[in-house]
Amino acid sequence: MIRRNPSGDLPQIHPSAFVDPTAILCGKVVVEENVFIGPYAVIRADETRPDGGMDAIVIGAHSNIQDGVVIHSKSGASVNIGAHTSIAHRSIVHGPCEVGARVFIGFNSVLFNCKVGEGCVVRHNSVVDGCDLPAGFYVPSTTYINARTDLGTIPKVTASATEFSEDVVRTNNELVAGYKRIQNEF
């Protein structure tokens, strides 16, 4: 479902993107080219700053927002998801938040008030809260990271983790083409 927010903003969706009919996109949302948005995802840009304005939630080109993901933002702050990035099933991205290009966010992970640098991998059931995670870090499953976390204890991304991330993006880019081909059948 594509709908306006109370401020009157309507999502802008590139014609090459695929948005599952069960997903909800509301308000000042920008979906760039060849993006896959899966079943029951919710991307909602409807809260405003005290001055009445709001920044957009932007989903970068060739990225995928998988089943049940929620992306929202507090008080009109921006959320930017970089190109070729995967946000896996049931994750929550709550702004203000910036996720770099070629990032993988694993199942059930939570990002809030943070920056996740290019090429990072945040594995399943992890939390990144209130901090900047520089490019190329690997966050193991069930890890909690905040501003007090010693990044020296966090490993760097391995070649196999990068290959996995790239394969997820490739697979979801193929789904865009497949679902676009049959979208008028349902």
From TrEMBL:
<dbReference type="InterPro" id="IPR011004">
    <property type="entry name" value="Trimer_LpxA-like_sf"/>
</dbReference>
<dbReference type="Pfam" id="PF00132">
    <property type="entry name" value="Hexapep"/>
</dbReference>
<protein>
    <recommendedName>
        <fullName>Carbonate dehydratase</fullName>
    </recommendedName>
</protein>
<dbReference type="InterPro" id="IPR001451">
    <property type="entry name" value="Hexapep"/>
</dbReference>
<dbReference type="InterPro" id="IPR052265">
    <property type="entry name" value="Gamma-CA"/>
</dbReference>
<dbReference type="InterPro" id="IPR047223">
    <property type="entry name" value="CA_gamma_LbH"/>
</dbReference>
<comment type="similarity">
    <text>Belongs to the gamma-class carbonic anhydrase family.</text>
</comment>
